[in-house]
Specification:
Order of helices and strands: HHHH
Strand content: under 5%
Shape: globular
Radius of gyration: 14 Å
Number of helices: 4
Largest sheet: none
Oligomer: single chain
Distance between the termini: 19 Å
């Protein structure tokens, strides 16, 4: 069952969202990759997509904040992630016909 998520406090992300983030990083020329562990660590209670990117930037990519405004980067990454997610192109490059459709527990609420 897929449910809508109405607030960041209840946001549910899935592996397709992780792939959408990774695809957005690639499209924007960022050599970043969120593995499953990193993605799960960024999903603290109350964090929406922008808060996840902001947390990653300030902890793992802080050097970029000397040249770029954090909100500029967050906005670009999240906007591209939403485009990719909406297009349905957010699949793992190695996804197969055996991929479980239940891998997404809900719809992201942003």
């Amino acid at each position: 069952m897929t449910t809508s998520v109405s607030s960041p406090a209840t946001a549910t992300f899935c592996d397709r969202d992780r792939h959408a983030f990774n695809a957005s990083f690639h499209d924007l020329g960022l050599v970043w990759y969120w593995d499953i562990d990193t993605f799960e660590e960024l999903q603290a209670p109350g964090r929406d997509a922008a808060a996840m990117v902001r947390a990653y930037l300030t902890t793992a990519q802080a050097h970029l904040l000397k040249a770029y405004d954090v909100e500029f980067l967050v906005d670009r990454i999240v906007a591209r992630m939403k485009e990719i997610r909406a297009s349905g192109a957010a699949r793992a490059p190695h996804a197969t016909a055996f991929e479980r459709p239940a891998s997404c527990r809900g719809v992201i609420g942003f």
